[in-house]
Amino acid sequence: MSIRVPRKNISDRVSDIRANENGAVGITPENPGAAPAPNPGASPNPFLTSAAIEPRLSRTASPAKHPLARTIRIGVAAALLFALFGLGVYIVGWYRSQTHLLNAARSGAHNLQALSDRLSLREKDGTGQLPAAPEKDLAWGDFVSLFRMSSDAFKTFGSLASLAGELSGEMDYLTRNAANFIFDHRGAELLTHVARVRDILQEMRNQSDRLSPLINNPSGVFPFGPEEYISLRLELDQFSRFVGTLYDWLKPPRRVAVFLQNSSELRPTGGFWGSYAELDIQNAELRNLAVRDINEVDRGYTDNVVPPLPLQVLGKRWRIADANWFFRFADSASAALDRMEHSSIYRNSKTSFDGAMAISPRVVADILSLIGPIQLPAAKVTIDHTNFLREIQREVQSERVERNPYPKQVLGELAPVVLDRLRELSSEEQKQLAAAAKRWIENKDIMLYLRNSEIQQLADLLGLSGDLAELPREGNVDYLAVVASTLQGGKTDLVINQTVTFLSQLNEDGTIADRVEISRDHRPKNSDPWWYKAENNAYFKIYTPPEVELQGAQGMWDRRLTRKSDASEPGYLADPLVTQSEAGLKDFLTFPGVVSFPEADRNVFGVWNRVSPGERSTFGLDYRLRSYLPPADGRVYQLVFDRQSAARSKYRFEISTPIGYRWKENGLPVFEFETDDPPARLVFALTLEKI
Length: 691
What we know:
Structural class: alpha+beta
Largest sheet: 9 strands, mixed
Radius of gyration: 28 Å
Low-confidence stretches: 1-102, 111-144
Helix content: 25-40%
Strand content: 15-25%
């Protein structure tokens, strides 16, 4: 019998199971570290860490000791600067430094002061007995040894407290003035403050070196243990380098492509890249913003790159518009930028790109919700947070019917108005925008790829990179991602009601039997335009652990494709990632309509599905994998789920123990969990318990 987990401590938006009395956590969203929400009714803090899977999948069964939050970006125009500085420095630097270093430095100074007072009392009363210490009592020998170091320790803790307070002030100032720096051409001032943050972090590193003699002292005066000290020092090193790199990166001319993902036509990164914005930045200032139709750059692209076989239903050449074929955002972004630079639009002027971002319609809707409706006189339409995607789609389709060579000009009309409204945000509204930015990161509504590897590493650490979880080579870890691409299916994903069900059965012999079932209901309204009433043709990539064995398949569309192009043809080029995947392509004679291939260190099952308006379609896969360790009392099982950005779906997970066991987290042999809006990553960490 399965019993649903009580919702008394589950967010109304993102469900999670909090720690039990033993500190175990059943499920956590995958984001770097902070403690759980203090009250059960509130939305939980999504930043929990774990040592179970490293390094990118660093979420744990116990609350993090060192909270590490994330945040980002201001919309299309302000996207890059706010992401790189506001997120990378403010959230990491301010939160960790203020709440941890500042408190720890003050605690250390307080403890030393208390010990000094105790020494004074002992000398005065002559009893030879020390009054009880506020933090921890000491043997006399320990005390004398510590007191000899007290002078330097006082100075060090005092310096750290002062520096942490100064850093906190810098971060607070930068956050309150972020929009002004970006929109009012105050790049020089921004760079001055970035440089000051860099210098403060460097001095904090220098001061922290002086604390190393104290970390093994048993006094309890030093607020960290050795492992915590080393971890904190490494992070200080990392963030100090990052700020220095950021400072150097912001000064020269930079160009970034910002792709607006159309989630009504799903692609692996979250939606079709029909439009993009060019952001030109120099000396930390936004110098230019131009919104373009992807067809403009496609028209100047003449290379004949062979598309993956499923994309060949659209043509024999791989267009830039279809470059986002890979679930890992860096792979799709890199492919798009390489092709764009080969287009005559950019090739003739030798223009290069420093990076790319992708934003979902939710980002634009949240911004419109904050700044209010916008009237577009040329388009004769009012855009607000409720109709943005549908109205933009309608305007684009109307312009194409009238054969306008620039059908995305409505976006060009919208962008400057949004920028003007953002310049006028009040202090309170800027805070609301920052809070929304955290949600964008959590839900993968914004992703960042930069060709500067050091800054990109931090983007990866903070969950901005759109990468897949890095799975350990040992331990009982299962994995799932369900990624859809609508090909020749109009804009129908906006009216598809989809449910993904994942059933996992742990067996006594150490195997794990999984089933993925996907149900899709096509429900357009009678009043909807034709592009929402087309037949939905979707290619699904279902990502699993590398070594799995297919056991069954039901309900998929056995779509037989003939290659339209091949790299062996004269004048055609192969893509290395596609070549690598297709080299491992495997057909299943007993299960028509299913193929498998490697991608991003995963096994991927590829299947087609189609569903007509007003109809429902269901298909499923059964497969088996072997766990590294057989079932045993206290053994942990983990399921890692990566979400496709902007995919509208309900998700249901059901995980069952072997006979004779139950889950420690809920006391039942079956663990169930449902959500219709999961974060970018969920990690289920469940502990077997002998009955």
